[in-house]
Amino acid sequence: MNPNDLQPTTPWHLAERAEAMNPSAIREILKVTERPGILNFAGGLPSPETFPVDAMRDACATVLGKDSAIAKPSLQYASSEGLPELRQWVADEMGKHGATVSPEQVLITTGSQQGLDLIAKVLLDKGCRLLVESPTYLGALQAFTPMQPRIESVASDDEGVLPEALRAQLEDMKEPARFMYLLPNFQNPTGRTMLEARREAVLAVCRERGLPIVEDNPYGELWFDQPPPKPLLARWPEGVIYLGSFSKILAPGLRLGYVIAPPALYSKLLQAKQAADLHTPGFNQRVVVEVIKDGFLDQHVPTIRARYHAQRDAMLAALARELGPTGAEWTRPVGGMFVWVRLPEGLNAQALLPKAVDAGMAFVPGAPFYASEPDARTLRLSFVTSTPAQIDQGMAALGKVVRATLMR
Amino acid sequence: MNPNDLQPTTPWHLAERAEAMNPSAIREILKVTERPGILNFAGGLPSPETFPVDAMRDACATVLGKDSAIAKPSLQYASSEGLPELRQWVADEMGKHGATVSPEQVLITTGSQQGLDLIAKVLLDKGCRLLVESPTYLGALQAFTPMQPRIESVASDDEGVLPEALRAQLEDMKEPARFMYLLPNFQNPTGRTMLEARREAVLAVCRERGLPIVEDNPYGELWFDQPPPKPLLARWPEGVIYLGSFSKILAPGLRLGYVIAPPALYSKLLQAKQAADLHTPGFNQRVVVEVIKDGFLDQHVPTIRARYHAQRDAMLAALARELGPTGAEWTRPVGGMFVWVRLPEGLNAQALLPKAVDAGMAFVPGAPFYASEPDARTLRLSFVTSTPAQIDQGMAALGKVVRATLMR
Fold first, then answer.
1. Total-model pTM
2. How far apart are CA B341 and CA B329, in angstroms?
3. I need a surface site. Which of A4, A401, B143, B330 has the fewest CB within 10 A?
């Protein structure tokens, strides 16, 4: 414990794990970016234009209607597992993606972030090994870190972890890793996707070495030209815990996600869930069931895809125009929310940020997304919150500060 | 780890702390009690008749209205601290109870159960000492246990922990305890309340020995004849973390609670909150702010008090009639939701339960509420879910099985 954390007169004594919780670098950065007038490409905020306000209003009116039989049940304590209708919907939906899932394997969570927290509690001991992509989702690192695992990055390319690097790393290990955390579709922060052959090659190593996988899929529905390959869960049901979310296809402010777990693990995750918050708000679950029950998402999600597709196109075109001549590199995501940029040699994204903010735009430096050995030249841009015109303007500002910094 | 928990072929390996999570005894019991036709005094479910469905429906319509400026913000990601208006409301409300609280000390949580979980993460190490009342709230034990503290009960009477027993226990301790968990108002499970002199006497020991307190107050507003003495937080601001909830004054299905923490601890709890679920659903927070903003609770809460008061009276009268001659004892709560019964010598509440269910009523055996040395004669009855007529009928059934068992 850092003795400076608490004043000497305080009666409180922090847990050792609290020391592993540090003020989120990204959180501090985001505060800077919230200055009025700044074009913000830093956050991972879905476009509010995609939020189904009318459908939500109608659903609330139905659930709480004067003759509604579910008004009072929606406001009462509910089961920790989640609403049966919603668990059934998730199981059916996974079936469409090639995975055989029973509703009894579905645990409704308060956002998929809570799924990561429950997994950390149930599977991670102090000092145990845990594998992640390089870079990986910062929120997962925040959920895992308090349980004090030793987090190791696996060398990754533009499709995620490299199977041969993974194999070599597993052979080096004196003890097995508890699991590997993967985000196969339109990854946060890089936007990259594991294609069919990569999925099979990584799974072959995992199966062979008995390394289970936590598969996080918040963005899978946000594909542009074609759906991503089928989930890892569909390929290795007993070796994969799967996380899904309603945040990107309906609205994040509902905090609705889910975990799909092999039966052997489900009861422990459920016990952790019960201790964590008893259950996810039943009202939110009832309202979402009401919104989605008649195929609403079949109409709604394509409108989100089309919007983000156009915004991605605008960003890639603007990046080519503004950063193309500078030697910078960036990903070409086929779905999701993010582009990952690597600045020209000699530049540092963290150092560039204040200049970019002065020029009117904000991004997130890439370093906090690395569990080890950060690449200080990287940064993350979200293309979902801004219009194509704002994207043009923001990338022009970024291009200007990059070129100005290079010329010094 | 229990090797039977997972099949030998599974690639998963549980964390040591998962072993401390056991299927909740009470959860298994509650399943038995959910048989149709059983008068259920087992659960701690607020009466659905108190849920403000009309006000909730209106608030949802306002928040999501066609011209609402907060419709989309209510569905977007939000700050981990909680909605400023709600934090301000909590701070103002605490002022009315004699505690000087800044909104910056208020962390909105997904039910107050989440507050217990965050406190456990931030303050408990494996093997550290932790003090609780005897008996204490089962959900708190479930939140604390996964962090593997050594939980010690402090001898308690019908006003909670005994100051002299606490003093002696602290002197015996080789190491200080991290905190003491207290539920001073209408405690779950006993219904007991710490009166003014007891609060001061316990606090004197805590202050003298530097033992901080976690004060849990979900039931404080549910008083019958007069409000309880002012909270411990008002008496020792730097030594108390306070937990509150909207579950009993509005509706539990919203999952809205809060933690009030000394500034030195707030940032760690906030970091734990962010990792746990990013933030509590913003939609729920906006709707509740809309419901309560014009003094709604000043009209609403008295109706809940009157209802539960009448139901408590019915239960105490029925208990006197049915159990009075048997030698059983029970508490006389002046607020809250629960009566705690101690059966006559020779009876065991767990053994009695199946007979009670066969006779048409259910209670919760008291044993799971003890951190150590359970009193097998105790049981908990909730008087809030049933009407006075149902209470009469249920207590008659309980009296019948108690008398029948005594006669054997």
1. 0.96
2. 6
3. A4
Write down the mean pLDDT value for chain B. Answer: 94
Q: A398 to chain B, minimum CA–CA distance in Å?
A: 25
Nearest CA in chain B to A178: B13
Pairing of strands B129-132, B106-109: unpaired
Kindly give the pairing relationship between strand A240-245 and strand A213-216: parallel
> CB distance B147–A61 less than 8 Å?
no
Phi, psi of B174 (to 5 degrees): -70, -35
CA distances (Å), origin B235, targets A6, B101, B229, B232, B242: 21, 12, 11, 5, 12
Q: Who among B15, B21, B253 is closest to A281 (CB)?
A: B253
Which domains occur in chain B, in start order? 16-52+299-407 (3.90.1150.10), 69-294 (3.40.640.10)
Among B21, B75, B265, select the one facing A272 at the smallest CB separation. B21
Shortest alpha-carbon distance between residue A41 and chain B (Å): 15
B150-153 and B129-132: which strand pairing?
A: parallel
B93 near B260, Cβ under 8 Å? no
The tens digit of pLDDT for each residue in B302-358 reads 999 999 999 999 999 999 999 999 999 999 999 999 999 999 999 999 999 999 999
- Which tokens belong to A318? 């603007």
Q: State the DSSP code for A335.
A: B
For residue B281, give the nearest of A6, A17, A255 by CB distance: A255
Neighbours of B366 (CB within 10 A): 24
Whether the bond into B135 is cis, omega within 30 of 0: yes
List residues bridging with B160 in a β-sheet: B157
Q: How far apart are CA B63 and CA A341, in angstroms?
A: 38
Q: What is the ipTM of this complex?
A: 0.95
